[in-house]
Amino acid sequence: MNKHPHQIRFGQALSSHRKKQGLSQEQLAFNSGLDRSYIGGVERGERNISLINMYKLADALQIKVADFFTDADND
C-alpha cells in the first residue's frame, strides 16, 4: 500500500496531539466517536481521512483543525 506523504504527516500530527494530552487511541476513539483501528490507520498514514473526521478528532482533542497542519509544518 502506498502512503501519501501528506497522509503520513497528518498522522504524525494526530499522534503527537493525542500523546501530548496523554490519551490512548482507545480513549480518542471513544471521545471522537470513531473506531480505534481507524485512528491507528490514520496515524500510520494508511487512511485518507475525511474533513468530517478531521473535525471529530479536533473536537475530541479540543484543538482547531488547522493545528494538525501548522504543527506538521513546524516539525
From TrEMBL:
SUPFAM superfamilies: lambda repressor-like DNA-binding domains
Record keywords: DNA-binding, Transcription, Transcription regulation
Residue ranges annotated for the HTH cro/C1-type domain, each copy included: 14-68
Pfam family membership, one: HTH_3
PROSITE patterns: HTH_CROC1
Keyword Transcription regulation: yes
PANTHER family noted in UniProt: HTH-TYPE TRANSCRIPTIONAL REGULATOR (PTHR46797), HTH-TYPE TRANSCRIPTIONAL REGULATOR SUTR (PTHR46797:SF23)
Protein name in UniProt: Transcriptional regulator
